[in-house]
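Training component of the fellowship. As part of building independent skills, the fellow (R.M.) carried out the full modelling exercise for a liganded target. The chosen ligand was manganese (II) ion. The inputs are recorded below so that the supervisory panel can assess the work.
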Amino acid sequence: MTVLSEDLIAEANAREIAALDEDYDALGRKLARGGLAIDAIKDRVAAFSVAVPSWGAGRGGTRFAKFPIPGEPTNIHEKLEDCAVIQQLSRVTPRVSPHFPWDKVGDYKGLRQEAAALGLGFDAVNSNTFQDQPGQARTYATGSLSSTVAATRAQAVEHNIECIEIGQQLGSRDLTVWVGDGTNFPGQQDFARSLDRYLDAASQVYAALPGDWRMLLEHKMFEPAFYSTVISDWGSSILAAQELGPKAKCLVDLGHHAPNVNIEQIVARLHRFGKLGGFHFNDSKYGDDDLDSGSINPHQLFLVFNELVEAEAHPRDGFDPSYMIDQSHNVTDPIESMLSSAEAITSCFAKALLVDREALHAAQEANDTMMAFQALRRPYTIDVAPILARARAEAGGAIDVLATYRASRWRERKAQERKPVGLGAGIV
Ligand code: PSV
Ligand code: MN
Ligand code: MN
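Fellow's submitted model of the complex:
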């Protein structure tokens, strides 16, 4: 079952194919001069994928406002439909990362079948102990896994175990744990004892992981706690992961670091110690902005992928990071943002594949700084769009994803069918 008409995509592609062939052939000749076979790069790109977040399918909003749009999904079923649109057009987003209890339903086996019928699977399951939910016995105002209140810690452990059980029914194999636990005042809590409590509770979650599962620890420097956060940085994250055991890995959300931190170096460090578990891709100008991937600092995204391609070529203790998008779409149609982000992420991967690693390593060994830099600079400046478009078209996706999406009038059609969200006027 396809959500968009295959004919619509085929007709749109027919209008673009001649220009794409020309661009692909020209790029192929350019790459061949450097000893690269464009078809081999295209095959690697065709095998690449990144999961989309169920929560990213709706308009996110900020602490101050939310501006819903007509036709926005209001439940996990409608979110899956929208994710299927992204996958049908882009062919790089075959999995959805669900968040609980936001995506709670009665029948998870049924949900898995529903997703499969739409051409989708499930990625990492995200637990939520950073908000109180209606009917919840204990508040997380004192923290969750690190709370001073034993019954609250037990509740948070139980929720994470429930997420694992749901994930097993959905076919996931990772549990992503981000806790907002921390403090707003110096002296509010003891740094060491908070971490002890977190580790003790997290180890109970860890003990419930099925054999082939991983627990991805997501760190974040601040927000909602503005003085200290229990798992605040990659240092705390890797120490916790090392303490918990081999199935615990670190997840890097690109927006969760102090300003100007060298994230690509963190990636290399985590890989060196076998603890690179995955990513939440997004972009950031000031903090955890959840802006669209590559919209602010595409160069950083490229440098991250450069480390990933390097790591894959030199696996220390395996190499299997989960790639997910984690964005909040406040002023765009979320489908368009995720189409554009998936393209930005995939193009950084493709550019990283173009790096002449022999030349790079030789320049590094010879301390030839300029040539080492040029080994990264040259591929970064190459427009890889024809490679991505060709890979998409061969898989049945759209050459021009955004134009084809607009031509489908998906959102307008859904605006007629779906119930309106909140107070959104929706008229610009
Ligand atoms: C926290 O800021 C975070 O990045 C975590 O991944 C949460 O699960 C997600 O955002 C919620 O939007
Ligand atoms: Mn995140
Ligand atoms: Mn975040």
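The panel noted the following from the submitted structure. The mean pLDDT is 97. Residues 55, 126, 178, 218, 220, 253, 280, 288, 326 surround alpha-D-psicofuranose (ligand 1) (CB under 6 Å).
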